[in-house]
Amino acid sequence: MKLTPYGHSCFAVLVSGKTLLFDPFITPNPLAENIDISRVAADFILVSHGHEDHVADVVAIAKRTGAAVIAPYEVSQWLEKKGVENVQGMNHGGAAKMPFGRVKLTAAVHSSSMPDGSYGGNPCGFVVESSDGNFYYSGDTALTMDMKLIGEQTQLRFAALPVGDFFTMGIEDAIRAAGFVAVKKVVGVHYDTFPPIKLDREAATRAFEAAGMELLLPAIGETIDL
Ligand code: NI
Ligand code: MN
To answer: Among 133, 168, 199, 221, which one is most buried in terms of CB atoms within 10 A?
Structure first.
């Protein structure tokens, strides 16, 4: 699987020939100023919750690419009102077969309202299964025991976890989360974008190493193989 981060919690994973784009927040992010959203590919857009820093560019990219959007039900309804046509509103614990394999919505401990203040339902994470391998993106969340269920059920190649602290898990809890879902490789997301989530990369990398894990922090726009 190839993964390309686009800043904050936005990243694309190429899975079984399909590009899955998560939580697009590119145009409002100065750290991602070199990313041209008119060139960001997507066959599917997976949205974890309604906050602006996860939905900012969903409508534009969905309309341009015709990508199918997978989101919690209330987020999907909001996107439909914005004119996004191909939307699949799911809910927690639900899984669906997809052209890339299978996707399941997992619990996340966070909040969710849409940028205009309307109700965003509950935030989620995603387990993606495919013939290329499986991975977990937790979305914005606290550490939760529910993550153990994911590790028991699905063998994962990697997890994308927030590491920025303040609004989500920080390093210490992300390491425990990686243990709960039984991965050794973590792609860090949700860091550096805002002053309270500035990451000490060296300290973070060392902490993961000390736990026998690897923290990957690829540069924005850089594609890595996982
Ligand atoms: Ni959030
Ligand atoms: Mn967020």
So the answer is: 168
